[in-house]
Amino acid sequence: MKRALITGVTGQDGSYLSELLLSKKYKVLGIMRRTSHFNTARINHLYKNKNFDTEYGDLVDPISIANVIDRFKPDEIYNLGAMSHVRISFDVPRFTLETNTLGPVGILEYIHQHNPKIKYYQASSSEMFGATRSKPPFGLSAEFRPQSPYGTSKLAAFHLTRIYREGYGLFAVNGILFNHESPRRGETFVTRKITRGIALILKGKMKKLRLGNIESKRDWGHSKDYMRAIHLMMQQEKPDDYIVATGETHSIKEALEFCFKEAGLNWKKYVVIDKKFFRPNEVPYLQGDSSKIRKLGWRPRYNWKEILKEMLENDIKYVEEIFES
Ligand code: NAP
Ligand code: F7E
């Protein structure tokens, strides 16, 4: 039985990856950090599986992570834990680098020093392309030009992963994932903010939805599809880097129009543009070239409209339930 250790298990991707690995008969241990509220809503349903459990640890405390690795002895480590919000990374730049860059280097160094057989996955991001001057769609040879502390922290971790692979021969893989969403997406990312906002408006609990720059464009996929891709890259004979994207790009405004129309509403009546949600630097356009992982047989099953529809339906149901009880 393969053993997988997942950091960021309480997040969107951690929960779907756990489900996928459990369905493939892995033993899964998730590392979660201590918070003052319960943070296990996305994984509570998994505890009934005898092959799933969690332990406390924090990426800014490398000894805590090393202790868990020592006890659990994983075959594969998926490093999904991160301060993952781009705008907030401008408010907490140091914490962002500590978690997103020093966290992974701690794990890589542990693997190098103590058990070089462990396979390592690094959750890299399309934010590393930032304001790239390369032509879209962006592939592995496109210029990296991050626009935020978050993008910079992920770019450093990307190179460290490559360096440990090339320098020490570790099985260390970067998945450069473009934006991926789902009903489990954090409430402050733009797609979920829109679908949750519409659900509250329909229920009469919200009057206006306040957003920032709605002109930027994103290549949105589904988290479930992207977790299949990262597992696939970890099963290859040789470690390598891959891009995961749909190749289709749409503006935030298009997403707004689509979701409000689905709900039978005119977005212009409800959306207020608020400077508070703009970023000091923006990433204006993202579109990925995922041809390399497609050669391994991966394809996305969801398109952007199906994702948004699923999220909207889920939020409408959720809001109905909380205001009924
Ligand atoms: P998410 O929902 O924000 O989850 C992040 C996870 O990291 C949560 O479990 C969080 O714990 C944990 N975490 C944060 N700081 C930590 C720390 N210091 N120590 C240990 N754990 C910590 O993010 P996601 O959307 O699932 O993304 C997963 C990974 O992929 C992240 O590394 C993200 O940067 C990267 N990524 C995401 C996308 C995307 O579009 N979703 C695209 C490219 C790359 P709490 O639950 O306690 O907050
Ligand atoms: O913003 C604009 C915002 O926060 C998308 C993370 O998972 O994907 C994610 O980062 C766009 C930006 O995602 C609001 O300015 C407008 O142009 O949903 P987002 P992101 O910044 O692309 C990458 C790949 C990651 O790696 C990250 O971890 O939407 N936008 N108005 C807004 N964004 C937010 N959050 N809130 C607004 O009110």
What is the C-alpha radius of gyration, as a whole number of Å?
19 Å
CATH class of the largest domain: Alpha Beta
- Spatial shape: globular
- The domain count comes to 2
How do the strands of the widest beta sheet line up side by side?
A: 3-2-1-4-5-6-11
What CATH architecture of the largest domain would you give?
3-Layer(aba) Sandwich
Count of distinct strands: 13
List bound small molecules. NADP nicotinamide-adenine-dinucleotide phosphate, ligand F7E
- The proportion of residues in beta strands is 15-25%
Largest sheet: 7 strands, parallel
How would you describe the overall organization of this protein?
The protein is an alpha/beta fold and 325 residues long. The protein contains 9 helices and 13 strands. It has helices spanning 12-23, 62-72, 93-114, 149-168, 190-202, 223-234, 252-262, 291-294, 304-324, and strands at 3-7, 27-32, 52-56, 76-79, 119-125, 172-177, 180-181, 209-211, 217-218, 221-222, 242-244, 250-251, 271-273. Helix 1 crosses helix 6, helix 5 (190-202) packs parallel to helix 7 and helix 7 packs across helix 9. The radius of gyration is 19 Å and the shape is globular. NADP nicotinamide-adenine-dinucleotide phosphate is lined by residues 7-8, 10-14, 33, 35, 39, 58-60, 80-84, 99, 123, 125, 177, 179-180, 186.
